[in-house]
């Protein structure tokens, strides 16, 4: 036993907890520089595999300061973004390249 | 036009601030301008290549290509910045002394200059590829492509002006303290970039966040704001960091500071500087 043991125990616990968190899947579609659904519900406390399907011909950048995420999605392609586990609440996101129309929220319940 | 100017400005700003810091930290080094220009050119070419292959990159490694590329670019920059600081902690004092004595720039050899070139190129590559994609998207959709060139140039000029102002500001620091201050800034910049890299790996599902949000200071200083972005580059400020980002930040900070202290060795001034960091 040394002084580092409790620290490792804490890290191991944190790692195992996040590894054990349930995985949920959700999908967003971009078309005509708009997200659908504009409000996406996902469960709290789960890791979420978010697929963003960009059906426009032009690239878009999925950006969410609330979620601390940003990813460029080339035209006519899909991207996967891992988020969470999250606390209940509302998290805004935008398509940075077309911020006027491309915006939405992820509702965590 | 204003919309494209704002986006280009945002992307250019981060690279411009990093270049300003690199230029400041290598003050007194002969031919650094040429090397930084080389870095910018390499970065722009690289950004165009990344933009052209964006689709292939995004789909590589089971859809994790973009995050892995970003994390790789960031971590390489961290290593280069760390190496620069370690080099400076053994040569900085001599460099400052010679600058004072000769009143002119000092030749330092190729190694420290190539690290500068790499950091510049990587910063431009990362921010530039997003700019290229954005402008390509606008041009391809035909929406407001007439305003594209002036908007893009306006954003570019805005970012460059802020970077230039930071550089001019750094030069006001007295030479006696100059490399201590720039050493600190480079150290914090490296730690911040490492934290960014951690976030990309979490986004790719390769690293747990451990705790998604340690704090939320976005009301106080939003990372989206000009000041927020400024401090994001300068000290690695993050308004909503994850625990994993914090671990990367602190680990990088400690590692580089320790290496600086070891490299500083017998030099009294640098030992004092490094001692204050550990």
Describe this structure in words.
The complex is a heterodimer of chains A (109) and B (278). With 109 residues, chain A is mainly beta. Chain A has one helix at 5-20; strands at 23-31, 34-36, 39-42, 47-54, 60-64, 69-73, 77-83, 89-95, 103-108. In chain A, the strands form two sheets. In chain A, strands 3-9-8-5-6 form a five-stranded mixed beta sheet, with no helix packed on it. In chain A, a hairpin with a 4-residue loop joins β5 and β6 (69-73). Chain A is elongated. The N and C termini of chain A lie far apart (42 Å). The relative contact order of chain A is 0.23. The model of chain A has no long low-confidence stretch (mean pLDDT 86). By secondary structure, chain B is mainly α. Helices cover 78% and strands 0% of the residues of chain B. In chain B, α4 (65-102) packs antiparallel against α10. Chain B starts with a helix and ends with a helix. Chain A binds chain B through residues 14-15, 18-19, 47, 49, 57-61, 65-66, 68-69, 71-75, 77-87, 96-97, 99-100, and chain B through 3, 7, 54-55, 58-59, 63-64, 66-67, 129-130, 133-134, 136-138, 140-141, 199, 202-205, 208-213, 218, 222-224, 238-243.
Q: Share of helix among residues of chain A? A: 10-25%
Largest interface: A-B, 35 and 40 residues
Low-confidence stretches of chain B: 268-278
Strand residue percentage of chain B: under 5%
Overall body shape of chain B: globular
Count, helices of chain A: 1
Instruction: Supply the helix-strand structural class of chain A.
Output: mainly beta
The shape of chain A is elongated
E-strand count of chain B: 0
Helix content of chain B: over 70%
Strand order of the largest sheet of chain A: 3-9-8-5-6
What quaternary form is this?
Answer: heterodimer
State the end-to-end distance of chain A: 42 Å
Give the SSE string of chain B.
HHHHHHHHHH
Strand content of chain A: over 45%
Strand-pairing-aware structural class of chain B: mainly alpha
Q: Kindly report how far apart the N and C termini of chain B lie.
A: 48 Å
Mean pLDDT of chain A: 86
Major sheet details of chain B: none
């Amino acid at each position: 036993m040394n002084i580092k043991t409790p620290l490792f125990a804490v890290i191991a616990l944190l790692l195992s907890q996040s590894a054990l968190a349930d995985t949920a899947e959700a999908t967003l579609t971009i078309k005509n520089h708009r997200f659908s659904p504009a409000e996406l519900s996902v469960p709290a406390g789960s890791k979420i595999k978010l697929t963003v399907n960009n059906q426009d011909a032009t690239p878009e950048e999925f950006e969410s300061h609330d979620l601390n995420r940003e990813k460029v999605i080339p035209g006519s392609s899909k991207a996967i973004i891992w988020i969470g586990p999250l606390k209940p609440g509302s998290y805004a996101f935008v398509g940075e390249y077309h911020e006027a129309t491309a915006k939405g929220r992820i509702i965590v319940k | 036009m204003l919309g494209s100017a704002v986006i280009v400005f945002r992307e250019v700003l981060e690279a411009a601030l990093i270049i300003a810091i690199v230029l400041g930290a290598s003050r007194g080094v002969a031919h650094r301008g040429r090397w930084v220009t080389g870095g910018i050119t390499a970065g722009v070419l690289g950004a165009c290549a990344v933009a052209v292959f964006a689709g292939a990159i995004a789909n590589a490694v089971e859809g994790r290509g973009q995050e892995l590329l970003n994390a790789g670019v960031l971590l390489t920059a961290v290593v280069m910045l760390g190496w620069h600081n370690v080099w400076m902690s053994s040569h900085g004092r001599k460099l400052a002394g010679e600058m004072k004595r000769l009143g002119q720039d000092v030749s330092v050899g190729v190694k420290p200059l190539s690290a500068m070139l790499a950091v510049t190129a990587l910063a431009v590559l990362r921010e530039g590829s997003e700019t290229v994609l954005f402008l390509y998207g606008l041009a391809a959709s035909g929406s407001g492509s007439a305003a594209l060139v002036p908007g893009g140039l306006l954003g570019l000029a805005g970012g460059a002006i802020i970077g230039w102002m930071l550089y001019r500001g750094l030069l006001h620091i007295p030479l006696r303290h100059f490399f201590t201050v720039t050493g600190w800034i480079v150290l914090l910049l490296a730690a911040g970039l490492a934290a960014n890299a951690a976030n990309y790996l979490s986004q790719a599902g390769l690293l747990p966040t451990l705790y998604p949000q340690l704090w939320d200071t976005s009301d106080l200083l939003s990372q989206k704001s000009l000041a927020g972005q400024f401090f994001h580059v300068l000290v690695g400020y993050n308004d909503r960091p994850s625990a994993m980002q914090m671990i990367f930040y602190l680990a990088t900070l400690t590692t580089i500071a320790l290496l600086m202290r070891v490299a500083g060795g017998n030099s009294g001034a640098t030992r004092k500087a490094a001692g204050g960091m550990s």
